[in-house]
Amino acid sequence: MTDFETRYAKHREAVAKANILNKAVVFDALAVAGILHVFVEFDGAGDSGQIEGVLAHTDDKPLDLPMTTVNLHNAPWNGTKLTVEQTSLREAVQDLCYGYLEQTHAGWENNDGAYGEFTMDVAERRITLDFNGRYTETWSDNHTF
After folding, report:
1. Helix 3-32 and helix 89-105: axis angle, to 10°?
2. Verdict on whether the full-model pTM lies above 0.85
3. Which of 9, 20, 45, 80 is the most buried (most CB within 10 A)?
4. pLDDT band at 8 (very low <50, low <70, confident <90, very high)
5. Spatial contact of 33 and 66, defined as CB atoms under 8 Å apart
6. pLDDT for res 1
7. Can you state the percent helix, strand and coil of the chain, rounding each to 5?
8. Is 119 inside a domain boundary?
9. Which structural domain range is residue 94 located in?
10. Please, are residues 122 and 35 in contact by the beta-carbon 8 Å criterion?
């Protein structure tokens, strides 16, 4: 393996570890706030992508995420040791989703990009990712008669 490949493999391991830790932190804070479900939409293409919206619900009623702060784990590119940073619960939810996108579909925002939605079920402590990748297809045909 090249030096870059080794560093990238270690970074991916650190991202996966951070996601496990951050999932517990986020779900603990959501449960304390009485939130049952969170829906997070994302969209991106052309080397740019972002979270489009975060909606929290209890039963069938929408709620605002509380102004709670949590300690979130980050996987810096140049190392395997995680850092910890205090951030708002809203940013923690978004960062967790970005972390799972990096873990499962790194580069999702490149070229034709992708879109989708995360669904967080707080009682089940489960996150479901509905991912839709875009691509351009070309069909060429040439005839000489």
Report:
1. 140
2. yes
3. 45
4. confident
5. yes
6. 60
7. 30, 35, 30
8. yes
9. 3-133
10. yes
Total domain count for the chain?
1
What span, in angstroms and rounded, lies between the C-alpha atoms of 109 and 128?
Answer: 19
What is the rounded distance in angstroms from the CA atom of residue 129 to the CA atom of residue 132? 10
Any idea which residue has 């040791």 for tokens?
81
Answer whether residue 84 is part of any domain: yes
> Strand 48-58 vs strand 37-45: parallel, antiparallel, or unpaired?
antiparallel
Tell me, yes or no, whether 139 lies in a domain: no
Joined together, the tokens standing for residue 143 give 């005839």
Q: Which residue has the tokens 């190392």?
A: 79
Distance CA 66, CA 114 (A): 29
> What is the DSSP secondary-structure string of 86-98?
EEEHHHHHHHHHH
Structure tokens at 94: 């978004």
User: Does residue 54 lie within any of the structural domains?
Assistant: yes
Q: Give 115's pLDDT tier (boundaries 50, 70, 90).
A: very high
**Tokens of residue 114, six digits:** 């992708």
**Residue scoring higher pLDDT (30 or 7):** 30
